[in-house]
Amino acid sequence: KQEVTQIPAALSVPEGENLVLNCSFTDSAIYNLQWFRQDPGKGLTSLLLIQSSQREQTSGRLNASLDKSSGRSTLYIAASQPGDSATYLCAVRPASGGSYIPTFGRGTSLIVHP
Amino acid sequence: DAGVIQSPRHEVTEMGQEVTLRCKPISGHDYLFWYRQTMMRGLELLIYFNNNVPIDDSGMPEDRFSAKMPNASFSTLKIQPSEPRDSAVYFCASSLSRSEAFFGQGTRLTVV
After folding, report:
1. Does A1 or B92 have the greater pLDDT score?
2. Distance CA A106, CA A97 (A)
3. Which residues of chain A does B50 touch, with a Cβ-Cβ cutoff of 8 Å?
4. Which of B20, B24, B38, B44 has the most CB atoms at less than 10 Å from its CB?
5. Model pLDDT, residue B91
6. How big is the CA angle at A38 (ends B105 and B65), to the nearest 5 degrees?
7. What's the rounded Cα separation, in Å, for the pair B54 and B69?
8. A39 in contact with chain B, both atoms CB, cutoff 8 A
9. Cβ–Cβ contacts within 10 Å for residue A86, how many?
10. In terms of pLDDT, which residue wins out, A88 or B1?
11. Interface probe, candidates A44, A53, A106, chain B, greatest B C-beta count within 10 A
């Protein structure tokens, strides 16, 4: 059974810092990995989707990398801003077995203070 | 497309009452997922549909929970009777095959 772990569970940084959020998974046979952002009281917003054949994806100040063999993905946020404060979740989809269910981590709660 | 639409956004009900949550997926998406989110357990998959057919409902906690998808543009999640421990945020999500999943804004359910 796939297990997804996100470390740290919470992070508080001053504005302007570059930071890295980690996501690890136990079964490397994945189809893709997706990073989400969740603001308090809101739904999940998709940030980046990385296919298993890709090594990284970029969107603005966000860069997500994938090392499938080691079961790890990182989300890099450059020059963090208070508006980046949210919970960040990663989810992986299996490569086979007919099940397309994404497995989610518990998320990293990020606070960027001015 | 307006994205995944859920209603209501908030629901407060008394224990024992029936609760119905509604979801309209993104047009053209063939997968629909119902999740429940709590502080204690995080995001839990309750059930998912493929082309309107329920594929895996092993996450449905009890027989009090049921879900239907009568057509490609509508799904419901029903709890009858509701209990205080059902209080959570319920999310609906849809995707096209195994591609990017899109979530609705959720329904915050409070059972008193």
Report:
1. B92
2. 24
3. 100
4. B24
5. 97
6. 50
7. 8
8. no
9. 20
10. A88
11. A44
Taking contacts as CB-CB distances below 8 angstroms, the residues of chain B near A49 are 99-100
- Chain A touched by B5 (CB under 8 Å): no
Residue A99: its pLDDT value, please?
Answer: 65
Look at residue B1 and tell me whether its pLDDT is greater than 80: no
Q: How far is A20 from chain B (nearest CA, A)?
A: 21
Q: Which residue has the tokens 């309107």?
A: B52
Task: Work out the end-to-end distance of chain A between its first and last CA atoms, rounded to an integer number of angstroms.
Answer: 41
Residue A90 CA to residue B77 CA, distance in Å, equals 25
In this prediction, residue B2 has a pLDDT band, given cuts at 50, 70 and 90, of: confident
Q: pLDDT per residue over A14-50, tens digit each?
A: 999 999 999 999 999 999 999 999 998 889 999 999 9
> Structure tokens of A23?
């996501």
- Out of A34, A43, A99, the one facing B106 most closely (by C-beta) is A43
Q: How many residues are listed for chain A in this entry?
A: 114
For A49-83, how does the pLDDT look when each residue is reduced to its tens digit (9 = 90+)? 999 999 999 999 999 999 999 999 999 999 999 99
Q: Count of CB atoms within 10 A of residue B63's CB?
A: 7
Question: Which residues in chain A are contacts of B42 at CB distance < 8 A?
Answer: 104-107
What is the H or E stretch that residue A97 is in?
A: none
